[in-house]
Amino acid sequence: MSRFFSEKFKDLAPYTPGEQPKDFKYIKLNTNESPFPPSQKAICKANEQLGVLNLYPDPTCSELVKTASQLFNVEEDEIIFGNGSDELLYLSFLAFGQNGVVFPDITYGFYSVYAKVCNICFEEIPLNYDFKIDIKDYFNKNKTIFIANPNAPTGIALSTTQIEEILINNKESVVVIDEAYVDFGGESCISLTKKYDNLLVIQTFSKSRSMAGARLGFAVGNQKLIKDLNRLKFSFNPYNINKITMACGIGALSDEIYAKANSKKIIENREFTILELKKLGFNVLDSMANFVFASHNKVFGKDIYLKLKQKGVLVRYFDKERLKNFNRITIGTKEQMQILIDKLKEILEEN
Ligand SMILES: *Cc1c(COP(=O)(O)O)cnc(C)c1O
């Protein structure tokens, strides 16, 4: 730390991203990326931009916004794009966090980091004994609510009816629903943004659209909420979406058939993986995401993580009370999942 660093950030603990190892070719099931490449249409569109990188990108993302608004059936002023959904989550903390925020104690690790960096008071509500969100815990909080739906790293989803209950009981607070994993079996509440002016839905291109490396996400909500987010964006980085990513995004949205087919494969591979894990004696939470969260009563979570790593399979381990016997396993191709299962069999036999 330099002697110039702001005092208020001295104790800030940054978010820990999953490992991106360069030393060895692992089967990477640790960061919930898609095992499939981006759509060919996205790649072609992106390629066309290389020769015009001398020009700034469109700060209003007009073509991308237009394409998305048609696809998701919302108005153009009800949508904003961000440099990954992470950027929009951060802007939402900044924009709507002044009366404090609440989120589950077990959820996306960035929420507490953003609250700290923005100097916002936050309350973490414990999940139930079975790792579920009890919606009543979120009624009339008078604080901005952040819920990942499906939640991470549990994979468990709330229904849109349950989200609506939360909205009805928080008319004076913004409710942010982070739908990073919604395309793997969950229900989106984008259409509820017409009915509730306090709802902001955030989605990403990183998971179901195979674009984690491009950094693209979007938020949908009442035009006033979107205007607030734009005000902050234009006060910080108007060119938040680069030309290559923007073109890639437009291409991806013109090829929803490809994204849907990939999500379908992931869901099939997930159900296969859950079945096989249960046969091996694992306890697996009900997942609506592109990962599963699993524990075993004979081998410690950390041992499974380390032994899988030795055998060339990387999964995500959280060294945190309540989570430390679990591993979060990203769903990849059928071949990758078969290797995972074979390695786990070996580990259980060696034990
Ligand atoms: C992956 C993920 C994101 C981040 O998405 P980016 O668009 O890559 O920034 C946001 N929220 C949750 C819950 C995620 O798992």
Can you offer a commentary on this structure?
The protein is α/β, with parallel strands linked by helices and 351 residues long. Helix content is 35%, strand content 15%. It is built from ten helices and twelve strands. It has helices at 40-47, 62-72, 84-96, 110-117, 160-168, 223-233, 243-253, 256-279, 301-310, 334-350; strands at 27-29, 79-82, 101-104, 122-125, 144-148, 175-178, 199-204, 217-221, 282-284, 291-296, 313-315, 326-330. The chain has a seven-stranded mixed beta sheet, sandwiched between helices. A three-stranded antiparallel beta sheet has the order 9-10-12, with helices on one face. Helix 3 packs across helix 6 and helix 8 packs parallel to helix 10. Pyridoxal-5'-phosphate binds next to helix 3. Pyridoxal-5'-phosphate is lined by residues 32, 84-86, 108, 148, 152, 178, 180, 204, 206, 212, 217.
Largest sheet: 7 strands, mixed
Major β-sheet strand ordering: 2-8-7-6-5-3-4
> Radius of gyration in whole Å, from Cα?
20 Å
Number of H- or I-type helical stretches:
10
Mean pLDDT: 97
Q: Residue ranges: pLDDT <50 for 5 or more in a row? A: none
- Helix fraction? 25-40%
**Ligands bound to this protein structure:** pyridoxal-5'-phosphate
Shape type:
globular
Kindly state the number of beta strands: 12
Provide the β-strand percentage band: 5-15%
Q: Pairing-aware structural class of the strands and helices? A: alpha/beta
Distance between the termini: 44 Å
- List SSEs in N-to-C order: EHHEHEHEEHEEEHHHEEHEEH
